[in-house]
Design a protein that fits this description.
Two copies of one chain form a homodimer.
Chain A lengths: L20 H9 L6 H9 L1 H14 L15 H21 L4 H11 L6 H13 L3 H12 L5 E4 L15 E5 L4 E5 L7 E4 L8 E10 L2 E11 L12 E5 L12 E5 L2 E4 L9 E2 L6 E2 L6 H34 L10 E3 L2 E4 L7 H36 L6 H29 L12 H7 L9 H21 L13 H11 L16 H25 L8 H26 L9 H21 L1 H6 L5 H18 L3 H6 L5 H4 L10 H10 L12 H12 L11
Parallel strand pairs in A: 1-5, 2-5
Antiparallel strand pairs in A: 2-3, 3-9, 4-8, 5-6, 7-8, 10-11, 12-13
Helix pairs in contact in A: 1-8, 3-5, 6-7, 8-9, 8-10, 9-10, 9-15, 9-16, 9-18, 10-11, 10-12, 10-15, 12-13, 12-14, 12-15, 13-14, 14-15, 14-16, 15-16, 16-18
Amino acid sequence: MAFDNNIPTKFPSLGENAPSGSDLLSLERSKASFDVQKLTEFMYTKDWLEKRNRVLAVIEKDPGFSKTHRYYQSRDAKVKSGFLKDKRIIELAEEHQWGPDERRVATFLYDQSTPFSLHHGMFIPTLMNQTTDEQKRLFLEPALKYEILGCYAQTELGHGSNVQGLETTATYISSTNEFDLHSPSLTSAKWWIGGLGKTATHAIVMARLVIHGKDHGPHPFCVQIRSLKDHRPLEGITVGDIGPKFGFNAVDNGFLLFDHYLVPHVSFLAGLAQVVPGTGDYIRPPNTKLSYGTMVYVRANIVMGVRFALAKAATISIRYAAVRQQFVDSANARTWGAKTVVETPVLDYTMQQYRLLPILASAYACFFTGREMMRLYEWNQQEMKKGRYDLLADVHASSSGLKSLTTTMAVDAIEDCRRACGGHGYSLFSGLGLFYQDYLPNTTWEGDNYVLTQQTARYLLKTYRQVLQTGGGPTTDEQQHNITASYLKEYLHRPTAKCTAMNPTDLQHPELILAAFKYRAAYGVAQVVAQLDRHGKSWNAVLVELQRVSRAHCQYLLVHNFFAALQSDPLLSSSKYCDIHSVLRTLACLFGLHMMEKDLAEFIVCGYLSITQCDWVKEQVMVLLDAIRPQAVPLVDAFDLPDYYLHSALGRYDGKVYKAMTEMAEMEPLNHSVVVDGYASSIRPLIFQGWKDGLPGDSKL
Amino acid sequence: MAFDNNIPTKFPSLGENAPSGSDLLSLERSKASFDVQKLTEFMYTKDWLEKRNRVLAVIEKDPGFSKTHRYYQSRDAKVKSGFLKDKRIIELAEEHQWGPDERRVATFLYDQSTPFSLHHGMFIPTLMNQTTDEQKRLFLEPALKYEILGCYAQTELGHGSNVQGLETTATYISSTNEFDLHSPSLTSAKWWIGGLGKTATHAIVMARLVIHGKDHGPHPFCVQIRSLKDHRPLEGITVGDIGPKFGFNAVDNGFLLFDHYLVPHVSFLAGLAQVVPGTGDYIRPPNTKLSYGTMVYVRANIVMGVRFALAKAATISIRYAAVRQQFVDSANARTWGAKTVVETPVLDYTMQQYRLLPILASAYACFFTGREMMRLYEWNQQEMKKGRYDLLADVHASSSGLKSLTTTMAVDAIEDCRRACGGHGYSLFSGLGLFYQDYLPNTTWEGDNYVLTQQTARYLLKTYRQVLQTGGGPTTDEQQHNITASYLKEYLHRPTAKCTAMNPTDLQHPELILAAFKYRAAYGVAQVVAQLDRHGKSWNAVLVELQRVSRAHCQYLLVHNFFAALQSDPLLSSSKYCDIHSVLRTLACLFGLHMMEKDLAEFIVCGYLSITQCDWVKEQVMVLLDAIRPQAVPLVDAFDLPDYYLHSALGRYDGKVYKAMTEMAEMEPLNHSVVVDGYASSIRPLIFQGWKDGLPGDSKL
């Protein structure tokens, strides 16, 4: 028999039915009402795109950056490929003279955290900001040259968000001028520490500083944990990997315990607080508000990242929805070439539009809000340098709430997009499964999303009480540029305002949408203040409401920033950009009204929208979906996410979805042999035991 | 140095802080207001529990059923362990004389689909129901003895829900009395077929039957695809595994293509339709409604399974929330033994209660609805046997919508519970990550959840139109036992009804809650009928509304079945069960009002609830959460899910969460050697290259 059984399995070369995915995407692109490239350049700048393309050209072909095996890797293979990439980027940076920008781009495009992520993200920054010159020489300089590899060990097995509850102790021994690091209980084990499992030689350890019996609370120490020679854990250290996670498995999150581990005085990071050698006198850190600025920066960056997460999810699911055909929508049946009737692309179904297009709109919303947060961050930094702290509280509170709201939006959107891809969304080849799993920690780190909303709410309540005290009178200095105080005051002046829409299309006026979000946010704050201050409810009793007011506030900011950019961005408001302005305005209305519809009860219960207006909201959402539908593919194209970045069979620019699915299936290791591990011990005996009178021939029975 | 570096890593033996997890769970259990064991027996029956315990005792210790390595396994190890379990259950069944019930229990407890799942779930049932006696002898008998292993190949790469769109052809060749199976295009490749990738020797193939050029649409064929001797694919077959998935990776979902593959006439499953040998005359299948009964049965089973999914998620997250302590709620600070103040268990925070307790309530709701669906299924089967089809349409439509609604509730709840576990929810040791991934296909198979709602909605619209025609007059025969027709008629009689609650606690009356759900469901149906029939909207234009009316209808059923059982179940309504009745009634109110709050806008926009009543709904949800709070742990305990089943560090019955986390981390393969793959090539060179002047000693710097 000449037949070779086709192992490793190769697919026969078969054609695609017309219309092909490429045909369908070309058709979509021909309907663009705006200049896609111009919008791309507006969002990224030509300079960044040039840089991106330059880096992309290098890493796309580099084995250290290959994504080919990403979806088939076991845990240890993932960690290994992470190491490879970490080492390779250092070499490439040298070779191509990449600066921090290019490295950031490469890391962004590779799109998977690696064991060194926390070395760069937390270890080095902490050593930069919280050390003496001596400590910079001892720790920072070798860290920058990768002579030592570090991590940041704060979270403990029993203690996450509540940093003040940490148990690890660092007891000062004045006689030897050392600290005794110790883990007194199981729950005190450092846990979840990225890069600690199998990589780090050093750790920044947050431990309670105890001097002469007095507990000064958590402080940072820089300590060696593994031998530089052979990577063995040092004596007194228990260290390892915390095991498999829902995602993020290329990173070796680790645990760490100390058994009366002695470290020298210099291990205590003395850039802020200090311990006087010998006497053990404790010198408090200067009470600086500057660290809040850093938090704003980190969170603004997360929101900028949310834009990419949303854009990636939208790109994959919308392109695939334009390619995937299912049933014939009889009212809207299409023909194609010789075929009289072809199945309808699922993107033509209103349910699919309802599921996907608001996510596309939210990607753009997060672009504008991310940009605005960066502007506020920089403005605030300038102000603080001049000793003015007027902006800080507002910027910090909003950045907390926006981090919480937008990362939750993103994780939900990724999963919604995955599900909207139907069965194939469940294949890892969709590019959405691992993405969801890897993205999720964004909802936990830099402040748990639920805990964060309390910070935002606390500020909103405080501001409202201040506004109440001044009776909504003339603004104080602090309130002058304060968007929060401003809408709360507006509410106080017109506490029974109503939506002024007289007919459905009125709802497409930005002013009208903004007014609704402002009123609903302020009303929520006023209600909670009343519950606390007048009805004597406890903080715990109103936690659910607090989360709602934080969200309402941040939703207003998202809508506000979107419309504000459309109105006042110099480019967008120029006549040369009117094609882009027009489609973005429709998108902004969709974003606002869809979000309003999702929380419609809040807009009615406060008395702002009438029941008729609620029906209009629903109606206008459908009208706007219909308006955006033909622009959906051009709008995801404008995000210009390279195929290398997406690494998705379904989201490819060229629409060759089915070809890509089969090519990726050919690479499945199980297909490289006739039988797999387990056949000989389990399947074969079963079959053979059955045919007691001898196997039948391999006929087709 | 005596220090051995502690590799493989073992944790030091450290105590837990007081109060320990066990202390906290004991305290919770001491607060039970009802007899937990009695509730357990009510739900499962003593008989089933005895069976469960008997099977559990066997498989807990059996290597073939071990879950020890589940969270560390690579794809091929997962498949291999699946084979092992598949073979082992056959042996155990023989050894312990297990019947189908015991096997089902074993499979339920093992809680992971395996390569043989579709052999039992689809291959054998199809051969039982759609074959001639000759085919039973040829295919079914060897299948029952595992002499051949099968799968069910329907879905294609380009065709899922739309079965009529399948492309694979089976062309009858009258001269040889054979069929020519062929895959004409890439999109016609069979795809997603469970057990096909590396296991099946045979497949039921759905292919378009073509005779003398006439296409009779998809029909089933049973064909051999691999050699029984050595498992090689037969000539003309391309077969393999479709690659890694988001979950379900112990199953070898596969692909299959035919290159003019000839099969004998007997391959055509002739239990229903027939093809006359030689002439090729096609004999239509008898037009039976019985197959709808089967669908109802399958879906009722899925809903019964939803109860376990919800109970599992609730058990893990609620037990952990009782053990996990975070911050001190100052208004509610606790002391413990010698400790003056200890951190507050997160279950005491209202936000956490709001996230978790409604999920607990929904687990009980699905128990009662699953039970009711089974009753209706059996009643309907009896009726159909008597030639009466009055019940069928209603039961079928409701089962479609309920499958859609409850499986969506379940996947969302699993993920909500995972997130509510904070950082540790992200560890696979939580037991919630893989669980979510593996459970997800429930939303797609047996009818995609979105597509299904159209079936339910179509029936609701039809029933409403019928009711309209009879002017809400006397019921027809068909409507007599028809809960749907009954509430639609009620609406027609009182189209402007209002909620009669006069004060907040009125909302805890079952009648009041039920009336609200009925009105809101009927109002939605009436609106959509008006849009289609009076405003001439297309089906596509109202898809979003259709999904809403299906959900509204099924939410009503869930609430109805819960309260109906409380009122009329002989045990529950007896005085001996008043402790249980009381807590379940509170739970039913919470379930109803929380669901109402989530979709509050729909209850207001229809004019049924006033704004004041909406505030009462929110308020009562908080009141009910507070009432359920002390019963939360006893209520999850009543589901009596064994630790073996949960396989979760966080959800253990004994509350030893942190001990379990560290024990599972010790088993992580990465911790079994000092360095991992990649160290020598990536990390070591970096470190050594840095220290050009020689490594520093392993001091602590």
